[in-house]
Amino acid sequence: QVRLVESGGGLVQAGGSLRLSCAASGSGFSLNTMGWYREAPGKERELVARFRRVSTEYGDSVKGRFTISRDNAKNTVDLQLNNLKPEDTAVYYCNAPTRGGPLFDVWGQGTQVTVSS
Description:
By secondary structure, the chain is an all-beta fold. 0% of the residues lie in helices and 51% in strands. Strands 2, 4, 5, 6, 9, 10 and 11 form a 7-stranded mixed beta sheet that branches. A 4-stranded antiparallel beta sheet has the order 1-3-8-7, with no helix packed on it. It is globular and about 40 Å long.
């Protein structure tokens, strides 16, 4: 089983920065395929950033501002959020794909990011 714990969220002014961290433990996952998603009130959950086999994918709205990274020794997947905008306000979730496919993805509890104007 996979366990994911997010941290690092908070309140920040527009233009500021935050760094989120996802600590992964257990088995049946790979840091190489994990990612971050977010869900704002009234909106569907959307991709922020994720690792692919040979590349990294970012959502259009965060491209150039956010950076995803991983630390294999610590089993963490981090997300650096720079130049934050009010529209970035959302709950950010860490995601770990499994062998079962998309319906069996493992999610953390999420961490709230609030950006004031």
